[in-house]
Amino acid sequence: MKYKKRTITIKDPRLQRIRNSLRYIISEASISESGRLVQKKSKTSIDDSERPVLTDKIDKLDAAWEKSICVCSICGSRTSDMTRNPEGGSWYCVKCYQEHHDFYVKRAKQGEIWKDGAGRASTGWFP
Ligand SMILES: [Zn+2]
Fold first, then answer.
1. CA 103 to centroid of ligand 1, rounded, Å
2. Looking at the predicted structure, is the pLDDT value of residue 10 above 60?
């Protein structure tokens, strides 16, 4: 799926507090569920048929968390406005996104070209 660059900004301090509280609740629920699944998996034997099911659930939960708007993929901020990188679909706080964008633009102007998995020029950090 191809994403577009998107920044979600909340200026009202009351709405920021609500957003941050919701992110905290989702974060705690995700951490709690992940911990529960890991503990349950640790009690299974290697050949237990439930083990791969638990591993799959843990992996999906981790992947969902890493792409969640609740947390910056670089600095871990949970209280910032977020920008979604068009390439990969992860969310970054506005500051981290801008720093990476500036880095890639500067290096591209120096002639450096990044390739994606298919060997095409990668422009995910340029919008
Ligand atoms: Zn950040």
1. 15
2. yes
